[in-house]
Amino acid sequence: MIPAMPASAAAARPRQASSASSVSAVLLRFGRVAAMGTVTALILIAGVWASWGTAQHVLLTKGRERGTVEVTRCGGGMCSGPYVPVSAGSQARERVVIEDSVAVARGRTYSVVVKPGGDEVVRSGPAGVLYAWVPLGGALLLASVVVAGGLRRTRAAWGKAGAGVVLLTAAFFAV
């Protein structure tokens, strides 16, 4: 005859298995949140980094040369035209270069800021500020997908997506 197992010992085995699976579930959840949080942070940092290259010249204009450029020629991804200074200490130039993008059209005049140490300019004013932050808008949209799918935070994802859409739409209409 086989001796009967005490009821407390029989009940303890499923609890041990249950607690081991709950610990592994917690560790997997933590790993997912940590990984997706890191990916989200990297996407947003990359968006700010990509935007800051142009945004620093547009936002921090104190001491920089400001003026206007009338775009006369475009080709090879760049447009050029004569520069007329607006700020004190700025000097006129026969030719400055601006990136050929949706924000620039031949025959139009734009307010610009000269990048230090050269003849390259970037758009200034509200349109220039919004256009400079377009990479961040795209990063917000991409991060919203990661936040919704990987972190399962739908409200935060909708907030990021909304901010990205607002930024991109405002840039589209300002340009």
Key features?
175 residues, elongated, 4 helices, alpha+beta
Give a brief description.
This protein is of the alpha+beta class.
Helix and strand arrangement:
Elements: H1 7-59, E1 66-70, E2 73-75, E3 78-85, E4 93-99, E5 109-114, E6 120-123, H2 125-132, H3 134-151, H4 154-174
Overall helicity: 55-70%
Number of strand elements? 6
Q: Which blocks of ≥5 consecutive residues have pLDDT under 50?
A: none
Biggest sheet: strands side by side, in what order? 1-3-4-6-5
Structural class: alpha+beta
* Percent of residues in beta strands: 15-25%
Give the overall pLDDT as a whole number: 88
Instruction: Give the SSE string.
Output: HEEEEEEHHH
The biggest sheet amounts to: 5 strands, mixed, barrel
Total number of helices: 4
Radius of gyration, CA atoms, in whole angstroms: 28 Å
Shape call: elongated
| Straight-line distance between termini | 89 Å
What would you note in describing this structure?
This protein is α+β, with helices and mostly antiparallel strands and 175 residues long. It contains 4 helices and 6 strands; from the N terminus they run αββββββααα. It has helices at residues 7-59, 125-132, 134-151, 154-174; strands at 66-70, 73-75, 78-85, 93-99, 109-114, 120-123. Strands 1-3-4-6-5 form a 5-stranded mixed β-barrel. It starts with 6 loop residues before the first helix and ends with a helix. The mean pLDDT is 88.
